[in-house]
Amino acid sequence: MENGNLGKQFEEVVTGEVIERFSKCDYCGTMQRIGATEDAETCCPTCGAKRHEVLEKRLLKKQVEIKKEEPPKQPEPVKGGFAWNGLGKILLFIIVVILIGSIVYVISAMK
Question: Cα–Cα distance between 15 and 61 in angstroms, integer?
């Protein structure tokens, strides 16, 4: 059988608190859980001695998986658009040739 939690880390987290009422025997120590409205000071069903109320606090805990922080993802390069490799270099070369040609033409026309 394969464990689905293999490699995962867990941490116990307190999710709440419960207070339970018990009736404990003064003589034999028998404890019996009682409801919110029941009388705690009755006779013990085991030995017949007087019982008294005992309150117990219990923390409710839940196991929570510890999430590992992942490093921020690098944005992917934008595909498409104008790139200076290939076509961009050719267009730059043509613009430079046209500028030099127009400057030479203007200078030769002035003579």
Answer: 6
The answer to whether 59 touches 12, Cβ cutoff 8 Å, is no
Q: What distance in Å separates the CA atoms of residue 30 and residue 42, rounded to the nearest whole number? A: 12
Q: Phi first, then psi: what are they for 57, rounded to 5°?
A: -95, 140
Place of tokens 């709440």: 16
Q: Are 13 and 65 in contact (CB under 8 A)?
A: no
Give residue-wise pLDDT tens across range 80-106. Answer: 665 556 777 888 899 999 999 999 988
**What are the angstrom distances between the C-alpha of 99 and each of 86, 90, 111?**
21, 14, 19
Average pLDDT over residues 19-29: 82
